[in-house]
Specification:
Elements lengths: L1 H17 L6 H19 L3 E9 L2 E9 L2 E10 L13 H17 L7 E9 L7 E5 L4
Parallel strand pairs: 3-4
Antiparallel strand pairs: 1-2, 2-3, 4-5
Helix pairs in contact: 1-2
Amino acid sequence: MRLALRMLRDLAARLKSEYIHKAPEHIRLGKLGEDLACNALRYEGYRIVERNVKIYRREVDVVAVEKGTLVFVEVKTRADRSFGKPLEAVDTKRRNRLRKAAELYALGKKMKNISIRFDVVTVDFSENNAGTIEIVKNAF
């Protein structure tokens, strides 16, 4: 377990350095957060199906499957706390948009009788450079 955590931290540091100077800071930070979130989800047994799915002017960060459940994942990354904690950014409006996107995704893929869940992954760099990753299952 410690080795896996160390590997994730090393990956975070390496990925963070790779994204410097390639895009605007908030875009780089968001991409880094999504990459780290996907790695953490895989480590927890999720199978990533799609990333950055655009569904009728809505975007889903990650679509995954865990134990037969289709999981729609919102990833929130913060470099500092000036805009609050990452989880606080998943407000009612964001939740409703994600629910609608999930409904449209399932309809578009002709999925019936499938369990759907909404998770949030937070990536917080406000306390250390390695970042703190938290998976909130069944967040709403």
